[in-house]
Amino acid sequence: MTVEYTLTIRTGSRFGAGTNAAISVALVGTEGESEQHTLDKRFHNDFEAGAEDVYTVKTRELGELLLLRFTNPGGVAGDWLLDLVRVTAGERSWYFPYHRWILSGASAEVLEGTARLPQQVRNERAASARLEQLMHRQRMYVWRPAEATAGLPGALDISQERPLPKDELYRGLTDGSYEVVIAKTLAAIKLNLPVLTKAWNGLVDIFHFFKSLELPQLSQRWKDDYEFARQAVQGISPVHIQSITALPQGLRLPEGELRGVLSPGHSLEQALAAKRIFLLDFEILEGIPMFRKVDKDGSEERRWAPAARCLLYLDDTRQLRPIAIQLGRDPEKDPVFTPNDAEHDWLAAKIFVRCSEGNTHQMVGHALRTHFVAEPFVMATMRNLPDPHPVYKLLRRHFRYTLAINEGARKGLLAEGGVFDDFIATGGPDKGHLELGKKGYQRWKLSDNKPRPDFERRGVLDPAVLPYYPYRDDALRLWDAIEEYVGGVLHHFYLSNADLAADTELQAWWADLTQRGLPVEKLPCAELKRVEDLVDILATVIFTVSVQHAAVNYLQYEHYGFVPNAPLCMRQAPPQEKGKLKAEDIIEMIPSKSQTLWQIAIGRALSSFGDDEEYLLHEGGWREDYFQEPELAVIRKRFHERLRAQLAAVKERNSQSEVPYTVLQADRIPCGITV
Fold first, then answer.
1. 320 bridge partner residues
2. What local confidence, expressed as pLDDT, does residue 418 receive?
3. Residue 108 falls within a domain, yes or no?
4. Is residue 362 part of a domain?
5. pLDDT tens digits, residue range 31-68?
6. How many CB atoms lie within 10 A of CB 264?
7. DSSP β-ladder status, 37-38 and 24-29
8. Which of 195-209, 436-450, 476-490 bottoms out in mean pLDDT, i.e. has the lowest?
9. Which residues form the Lipoxygenase domain (predicted)?
10. 3-state SS, residue 433
11. DSSP string, 557-618
């Protein structure tokens, strides 16, 4: 019996997605497979970027379709980005999501899209197709040798012989690539450089840099104490503030030092007991090598980012403000500065704290705890989970561009001679920034990325203790929505822990992850036996690459762009005596003209969104639709409803805030790490 199969094929919309190659297809089902059919309509330009094309294939009855085998013979503009295929035959229909490239001169088997665990696959041909897909991917996604990532998470091995897979290449758009944005920003700034004074004054001349760029809003209030404290709860690194009831060791603060700083009649001891004192502590910088380089002529360049710490006070207006800063750990050498000290002493102390925070943020809070801890999950997923696996379907959209951006960061920012060597305090010959990343990784566990336990550990979960903490309030609503969504999806497929134990593909994923990606002690369980553990792990991963990355990334231009607010290096050592600093001393401390230029450009590039960005709450729905099951559609609808409620709450709070916190709006949080 001859059957007419109608194929509706959608080509991706990315630049270069279309092809002029003579694409052909064979249909494979439970009752056999068809001959190869060339897909070519007369007087029609087939497979253009973003287009849907409909073709008819007549062949014998094939039973239930298992896969489509596409062959791309190549030619000019040969590579083809296939989004998805829908096939119908009478009342029957099948769905084949792909969202990957079929390269020139290659064939690809696109598996039918019903989500199934491996133990649910009864057909031998379907099972072999899953295995063949994984074998092909394992040749493309190879772990970097262990010695190359010693002290850091596992990563993709990239070489001239084995480049980044085309499926992982960065967006090929005019805007979006951070290298392009850096180049454009540098060009725009350099147009104004001739008007700058020869004697660089970083506190004044920086305004000239913004003649063709938007001026960060905090530039008008950066010296204000309340602004300094506000950045601790809704700035680029709002993960350090902790409630304390006793002063940290080595921070000596006689009562007279705070005369007039605390509320009338309120002692420091009373403030500590009432949980009105908070700490920012960057002790992780202790012992980290700082930039130090001697040129051929014997001149030495040095940079500093001290292991600073700062006390914040919740005053009677229920607002935070800084009350004490120590730029080191030695009570004999490192004085404690307060608002009662000279104007320039206090300003310099605050700038040093922001520098310490910036170096910690860039290498630990940002690069390590989002970018690099995500990479092992991308690798394990691509190597061990075929397209129809529900966990692959759940995770794939959240891994878009992550491997590419990580490799770009390694080469462009972190490598010897990279951009960080030019302007960050921990960069340079001694590779302090890499030591800092390794130190952060040594202390880190995946559970640290879960927001609620983190807030509890720091004593700031209760709004009665810290009333205004927008990062906390927004992150918790998003976490709860993600956890419910992930749990709903996984419990739909894993009805019991026995189902998880029987899932050979996911057990291989776990083995690969723990052997090559993350040591098992970094994870919440030693063995993957409980569905709840899997929910916990995957919810944390999705939260990390979406919400947490957004929180520590997209405010970089606002936070670092106006460089005196948060310089990433200081060119003079922290003061060890009070009352000697002058305005010109601060000018000599903060970054040079060149360092300022780089910091503005990098901050702007890393805060940019791409034209093809896909957000957690995306207008019109997600473009890449992996699940077609009606039950999953209900779960996804519930997820988006919770995200809309979160968005409404954020907008309501921001309408009453002097400085709105918008970076964790659900409709502005990319699904993954794309920059």
1. 314
2. 81
3. yes
4. no
5. 999 999 999 988 889 999 999 999 999 999 999 999 99
6. 6
7. antiparallel
8. 195-209
9. 115-675
10. helix
11. HHHHSSGGGS-S-BSSPPP-SSS---HHHHHHHS--HHHHHHHHHHHHHHT---TT--BSS-
Structural domain for 88, as ranges: 2-113
Q: Is 479 in contact with 540 (CB distance < 8 Å)?
A: no
**Average pLDDT across the chain, whole number:** 94
Count of positions (residues) in the chain: 675
663: number of Cβ within 10 Å: 24
For the record, the structure tokens of 264 come out as 């009338």
Structure tokens at 429: 């010959």
Burial of 51 (0-12, 13-18, 19+ CB in 10 A): middle
CB atoms within 10 A of CB 2: 7
Euclidean distance between CA atoms 426 and 581, whole angstroms: 24
Name the helix (H) or strand (E) containing 38.
strand 37-38
Percentage of the chain with pLDDT > 70?
A: 96
The DSSP output letter for 215 is P
Domain membership of residue 80 (yes or no) is: yes
Beta carbons within 10 angstroms of residue 330's beta carbon: 10
3-state secondary structure 263-311: CCCCCHHHHHHCCCEEEEECHHHCCCCCCEEECCCCCEEECECCCCEEE
Stated as kind and residue range, the H or E segment containing 429 is none
User: Number of folded domains in the chain?
Assistant: 1
Q: Is 191 exposed, middle or buried (0-12, 13-18, 19+ CB in 10 A)?
A: exposed
Radius of gyration over alpha carbons of the chain, in Å? 28
Alpha helices per DSSP H over 84-237: 124-140, 178-190, 225-234
- Which residues make Cβ contacts (< 8 Å) with residue 264, sequence separation at least 6? none
Q: Residue 207 has what DSSP assignment?
A: G
Angle value at C-alpha 114, between 111 and 116, nearest 5 degrees: 95
Q: Report the 10 Å Cβ neighbour count for 296.
A: 5
Indicate whether 35 belongs to any domain: yes
Measuring CA to CA, which residue among 29, 42, 25 is closest to residue 3?
29
| Token pair listed for 608 | 């940019």
Identify the sign of the CA torsion 226, 603, 306, 423: negative
The domain that holds 34 is classified in CATH as 2.60.60.20
How far from 248 is each of 278, 355, 404, 444, 601, CA to CA, in Å? Answer: 11, 21, 42, 22, 37
Dihedral sign for Cα 311, 317, 318, 320, please.
negative
